[in-house]
Design brief:
about 140 residues, mainly alpha, 2 domains, about 65% helix
């Protein structure tokens, strides 16, 4: 999200109107802050938008999003790890969608500075795939792996 704001040349607006260059007119400052706020809001999913809907300034929205989604807290870490360890491969979904979901959870862990070794990631994914293969083989009357 921050990259999008920087690309649109309104990344400085995250720190508030007061820190914008004095060479900018008040109208330009307001436009930049409004552009940053609209870019943030447009990028949020409904579930996340609810968390910041009552906030009135770009800076407060940004700080709240950081505290909710980038802060390493025990509860946040446990929630993301729970998602990771409970992910299941389902036949009804495409492999790419499931790998994307797996990667998103790993990115969430990285964002809160909770690092897993590459070997751990592979073992988690392989265990889940093996579990699904066993179900398919058993249904077809074969043996378990």
């Amino acid at each position: 999200m921050q990259s999008v704001l920087i690309q649109q040349k309104c990344g400085k607006a995250l720190k508030g109107e007061a820190v914008l260059p004095v060479t900018m007119s008040q109208v330009e400052k307001i436009e930049m802050v409004d552009m940053a706020m609209s870019a943030i809001i447009l990028c949020l999913r409904d579930k996340v938008l609810i968390d910041v809907a009552k906030e009135t300034t770009t800076t407060i929205v940004w700080v709240k999003l950081e505290s909710l989604y980038l802060t390493k807290s025990l509860a946040r870490t446990q929630l993301v790890k729970q998602k990771l360890f409970s992910i299941r491969i389902m036949q009804s979904k495409t492999n790419m969608k499931q790998l994307t979901k797996f990667s998103k959870i790993l990115d969430d862990l990285e964002n809160i500075e909770e690092h897993l070794e590459d070997e751990d990631n592979v073992v988690l994914l392989l265990c889940d795939i093996l579990s699904e293969v066993n179900k398919i083989v058993t249904r077809k009357g074969g043996f378990e792996l």
